[in-house]
Amino acid sequence: MKVCILENDTLDPAVEPLYQGYGAMFERLLRSAGASGQFDHFNTMRGEYPTSFDDYDAVLLTGSRADAFSQEPWVLALRQKVMQLLDQGKKLVGVCFGHQLIALCLGARVGRAPQGWGAGRMRYQWLGQDPSQAMPGSEVALLASHQDQVFDLPEGATLLATSDFCPIAAYIVRDQVFCVQPHPEFVPAYSAFLLDKRRSLLGEESYCAATQSLALGHDGPELARRMVAFIEGRPAA
User: Fold this and answer.
1) Is residue 109 within 8 Å of 152, Cβ to Cβ?
2) Is residue 139 flagged as an active site residue?
3) Among 96, 105, 166, 179, which one carries the catalytic annotation?
4) Is 185 an annotated catalytic residue?
């Protein structure tokens, strides 16, 4: 497996020594889920891209504090790259900002969620593309941190996960695109760090509820196994 990780943000200096970067967080997650091979990291905010995407089995787009619909030059450049990759049939995996940006490139509406921030451990109904895609049980819990959402299911996409708070929480487009709004790469301690940073934005009631939810565990490792199976082009076991 050879994966290109397009890292669309940088970590807060307070936690960078511990977590190293969003690309590193994803590499650790996918390797722990059984992936082997080469992972190359490129920071798009700094204009970093591989010379060619041809040799990669998949391109993974991380989250970001930026809006997918932003007019910032680096976001516009990334959108242009993603449009090209979609046209070329390259396999794409998107998480949070990446999920939103790919949906935008596929013609869906993306914007600020009127219901506010999604934060902490959130539960979703897992629908699955077919029986081989279904997770054990009908519900999945994942760690979230977003104030934007995808409003429309992209044309040709199949809805994988949904909730009242986030109706389009994950989708797949045949064997080319796998996208999810919440963060399988997060660990509870990192979610807690983000919640502490945004305490005043969230409000005390939402902050306390989200913080307490972290003790309940999450299904990020299971979702990572689904991602690895998708990249490798095989049904999830």
Assistant:
1) yes
2) no
3) 96
4) yes
